[in-house]
Write a structure and sequence with these properties.
Elements: E1 5-8, E2 30-34, H1 37-41, H2 47-66, E3 70-74, H3 85-96, E4 100-104, H4 109-116, H5 118-122, E5 126-129, H6 138-145, H7 153-164, E6 168-169, E7 172-173, H8 204-216, H9 233-246, H10 248-254, H11 271-276, H12 281-294, H13 299-323, H14 342-345, H15 351-363, H16 368-382, H17 386-396, H18 402-413, H19 430-436, H20 457-468, H21 470-473, H22 480-488, H23 491-507
Parallel strand pairs: 1-2, 1-4, 2-3, 4-5
Antiparallel strand pairs: 6-7
Length: 512
């Protein structure tokens, strides 16, 4: 048999339409899939995340084989596995002696840097194709960003609406407005009970992977109990359908809400499937728009959902590849503090933090407001070093890959990029959390207190943060109100809050 190409499929590229598989000749080509320890441990990934990726990979390999495709699959527990992409591709080239290697552009800078050296190292041609599974090409984003002083997502999103035609009426946005976010900030009423999301009990193959991951990574943060993520394209489609019919109509109103005992509310829980490649982003947007056109879901809900995919998801990918590798090194606020130990233990004493942290441990999931305005807001106020909080987010969430995690954390949550993404830091006191949740009423800290043992830590940490960066924010018009309030504050009160901030943070220093 005449040798064909070796076609590499990475763990987050599980799409039948993957560019690396275009033109596949089942009679000559070999698809290479690799489970390597390096990718499981470069940060200590949540066990559910590792199971999700490995199970989805194995299901995808089975589907390819069912189509008559030859798949060379290197399992994690293969005794010959060298556990790095580069060395495993080299071994595969030696085994198959292909005419060349074909890969799709990866999602992380470090992997692309490795790939760029493969041709010389392997002695065969290596073709790295564009990843066409996104709604905006990297070139589209570069053209949009060229010459702009500020790269605001809202304006990119409008260009994407025009280019895609989603939620458009000719040249105008549906409903006459581009953004209905102001309608999507309601607190969850006590009598509103969200329906549970569709979950998928592990099949035999997934149970095998769970046992493997339990043996290989017993000390990684997070529980395997209750694993129920979609691991196939069929399941991902079912999860999307269930969201569209059962939860999308009320998603908009309560997408920023937090509630005791309600980990998922009306959220879609499809980001894992999108980021693995099991679900096409255009299909998700089209399904939501169709619901609006049928009159089954209101515009504020559908626009909010579409904005997260067509706007935020595409925007952060474009920003990541535009600004890397330097973007990851930015630390505009000169944050240096180590990550507090309760990010791993879930025992801060703050009801909102512990709710987000324990569900992260149990589900490898927290929704965007929990990430931005609770765990992220705390890291911002406390001055946690960007590398520390970035590594934590990348490790603990099942949907986290660096291209999507880094800009959201670095730019939105902790303002480490100095305003590349957001015009002001998303800093907030306990009042915001109290407005958007029911956590504060059951918390041992007083959300209205700013000093003393029982005061809400978010309050004194907020004013400590504002005071710490007073000069830095002086020229930012969006920070004028908190700065004006700071200047009116009695010196003794500020000093007391700064002392409380130090005491709290020192108490929760990292575990030895």
């Amino acid at each position: 048999m005449t040798k064909g190409a070796l076609r590499l499929v990475l763990g987050d590229q599980l799409s039948e339409g993957l560019s690396a598989l275009e033109g596949l000749d089942a009679a000559r080509d070999v698809v290479l899939m690799l489970e390597v320890r390096d990718e499981c441990t470069y940060v200590p990934h949540h066990p559910q995340k590792i199971v999700l990726i490995l199970s989805a990979m194995r299901h995808f390999a089975e589907a390819l084989r069912a189509r008559g495709v030859t798949v060379d699959y290197v399992a994690l527990d293969d005794p010959a596995n060298t556990h790095s992409f580069t060395s495993e591709v080299a071994r595969a080239v030696a085994r198959h002696k292909p005419e060349g290697v074909i890969a799709t552009h990866p999602g992380e800078w470090r992997v692309l840097e490795a790939m760029r050296g493969w041709e010389d190292a392997l002695g065969v041609p290596v073709e790295i194709r564009d990843d066409t599974r996104f709604l905006a090409s990297l070139e589209f984003f570069r053209r949009w960003a060229h010459g702009k002083k500020a790269l605001r997502m809202e304006f990119f999103y409008r260009e994407m609406r025009r280019a895609s035609g989603l939620l458009m009426e000719g040249d105008a946005p549906a409903g006459g407005e581009w953004n209905f976010d102001a309608e999507n900030r309601k607190r969850l009423p006590r009598d509103v009970i969200p329906p549970p999301p569709k979950r998928f009990p592990p099949d035999a193959l997934t149970r095998e992977v769970m046992a493997l991951v339990g043996r290989e990574f017993p000390r990684h943060f997070g529980s395997l109990d209750g694993f129920a993520w979609p691991v196939t394209a069929e399941q991902a489609g079912q999860a999307l359908d269930a969201f569209i019919t059962q939860r999308l109509p009320r998603f908009g109103d309560y997408q920023d809400a937090m509630a005791e005992g309600e980990a998922t509310l009306f959220h879609a829980l499809i980001s894992t499937s999108l980021n693995l490649g099991l679900l096409d982003p255009r299909d998700a947007c089209d399904a939501a728009e169709a619901s609006y056109r049928r009159g089954d879901a209101p515009l504020n809900a559908v626009e909010g959902f579409v904005r997260q995919i067509l706007g935020w998801r595409e925007y952060v990918r474009g920003l990541y590849w535009l600004r890397m590798p330097g973007y990851a090194k930015l630390n505009a606020l000169e944050a240096r503090r180590a990550l507090p130990e309760f990010y791993w233990t879930g025992q801060s004493g703050m009801r909102c933090m512990d709710a987000a942290l324990t569900q992260t441990r149990d589900m490898a999931y927290a929704h965007h407001i929990q990430r931005l305005m609770v765990t992220g807001n705390f890291a911002l106020l406390a001055g946690v070093a960007p590398d520390a909080i970035n590594e934590w987010y990348l490790a603990v969430y099942a949907d986290a890959y660096e291209w999507v995690e880094l800009p959201n954390t670095h730019g939105m949550a902790i303002h480490a990029d100095g305003g590349v993404m957001a015009s002001k830091p998303y800093a907030a006191s306990g009042a915001y959390i109290n407005r958007m949740s029911d956590h504060c009423g059951k918390c041992r800290f007083d959300v209205k207190g700013s000093t003393g043992e029982g005061a809400c830590p978010f309050n004194y940490l907020y004013w400590d943060f504002i005071a710490r960066h007073e000069r830095r924010f002086a020229s930012n018009p969006r920070m004028s109100m908190p700065l004006a309030n700071l200047r009116k504050m009695e010196g003794a009160k500020l000093q007391a809050m700064q002392a409380e901030a130090k005491r709290f943070l020192d108490k929760h220093a990292p575990l030895p």
